[in-house]
Amino acid sequence: MRIAFFGLGYHARTGSSRFFLDLLERLGEVDTFFAEADVADVRRRCAGFVEDRYDAIVIWQLHEAFALLSGRHPNVTFAPMYDAMVRGGAFVWKPSWNAAKILCFSWALRAEVMRRAPLHAHVQYFPDPAQHPAVTDFDTLRGFLWYRRRDIPPEAAFALTEGTPFASLAIHDAPDPGHDAPWNPAAPPHVATLTRTAWGEDRGAFDAALRGANVFFASRPLEGIGMSFLEAMAAGLCVVAPDAPTMNEVISHGANGLLYPPGSRAPLDFGDARRIGARARESVAIGRRRFEAAVPGLLEFVATPFAALARTAGRRGILLPARPATAAPEIGIVLDGTMPATSWILAPAAGDAVAEPAMLAAALAGAPPEAVAIRGHHLVLTADGAEHLRRTADIAAAWSRLTAGSAEVAGFGMPAATLLRADALRRIGASPPATPPELGDLLLRWHDEGALIHDADEVLATCPESDDRAGWIALVERRAGPAVAGRLRDAFAVADTATAEAARRTRPARIALDCVAAADRLSPALGRLAESMILGGGLRRLRSMLAGKRARGEDGAA
């Protein structure tokens, strides 16, 4: 098989797509074409490309390479990166891309792709921890931030660590183009030593600063795969990241990393950094095994023409790795509140879809025998048919976040995705929880009693979107008092306002992208022209020019 691979020149320099190229070479001969994200540069650098010479074509983020294709090739795979597909808070998509198979490395990307219904597969990449020496020295805390984006400046790391003594904090001062901004190089009182590095003839200073750290601050507000923070987790560092894709698709807050609301500067608790770092390395090792199991299916997805896959793939696409058929484990489903006569039970609500037996069996197999509950992650099904991943969080961390006035309540899990030991419920005279707040109450009770609650890294249910705010407020009021419940009620109101404001702010971007998609439906060439004008700054420059003319006219009239 002969394969053409198109990628960004930046990725050729960083090697971040190298793992995928190595996989493609298992299928056959691979010709690589790298260019900048510009159609003219793609045409110039890929002048020797002839579509008909290749059995398969892979486009890695560089969607400008579609300009070289006729739209008739039977086997094109497009691997967009989530962070690169978000413009002005809206998601970029062109209908002409639906002729390709879409490879999603992010759950958030998959959710957006599902709305547009092309043929797609989802897989999560994890590095090999064996290639990263383990960090075990947490006698002092030593932080590292690569200052790349104005969204996460050094001041953010200073604020997030406030109140916790840090022996050192290294800032690699190398912002992406357009993100340069001054910052105060003086160490805050809780940081003993602040160092500052920059790119030199080699990356020696960067590597030395990173090797000396045990706390890693994710440097970008969104990621496509997130190589840098994944490698930090693989080495056992305590990773601190915005609660956004793809960081929150790998990190469970307080368990294998620390998440904070994007833009927040509220201090975090680093008291369990050693345990969190160790859990991070373990979770990456589990993810690596899952990724390696997915590789055969991943290569088959790339090698198989679109038409052949379309006959078997459904709306949910292909989830990798595929799970072999497994006999259902002994798990009873609670119906009308009646406890079945089984060792383990699930209590799904109407509309919830429980995971296939193989997922449940994997969750059971990994749990210690003394566990009273096994929590899995779940997917939230929205009204438009998209599925969004919601991970569990450490129970104590989730409760602390809730009582601090956060509107984030997903970390406790869902009844449909939580296996409960029936005799443990009977022992305390509890009924199976019917709602997330009831599950949270039960888990907090067991946690306070020291019972073992096991967290499985499996997606165990898909649940329709629901609003359980009243139940959460009632739970917080009962456990923490009316003042704390009032804070939570206010947090929900603030979240509603923020959501409405975000929708208002992103409306121009959504309209612009709808215009690009409409032009693309008429002709891919017209879509590229619209993209160049609308997203490439043409209209912005025209508006500025017209505004300047109006201003000059008003000055003249005055």
Briefly characterize the structure.
Helix content is 38%, strand content 19%.
Description:
This protein is α/β, with parallel strands linked by helices. 38% of the residues lie in helices and 19% in strands. It has a seven-stranded parallel β-sheet, sandwiched between helices. Strands 16, 17, 18, 19, 20, 21 and 22 form a seven-stranded mixed β-sheet that branches. A six-stranded parallel β-sheet has the order 11-10-9-12-13-14, with helices on both faces. Strand 12, helix 7 and strand 13 form a beta-alpha-beta unit. Helix 14 runs antiparallel to helix 15 and helix 15 crosses helix 16. This is Glycosyltransferase. GO terms for molecular function: glycosyltransferase activity. It holds the Pfam family Glycos_transf_1. It comes from Neoroseomonas oryzicola.
Rg from alpha-carbon coordinates: 25 Å
What is the strand arrangement across the widest sheet?
2-1-3-4-7-8-15
Strand content: 15-25%
The overall pLDDT, averaged over residues, is 92
Count of runs of 4 or more consecutive helical residues:
17
Total beta strands = 22
Estimated helix fraction: 25-40%
Shape from CA axes? globular
Residue windows where pLDDT falls under 50 for at least 5 positions: none
Distance from N terminus to C terminus (CA atoms, Å) equals 72 Å
Largest sheet: 7 strands, parallel
Q: Helix- and strand-based class?
A: alpha/beta
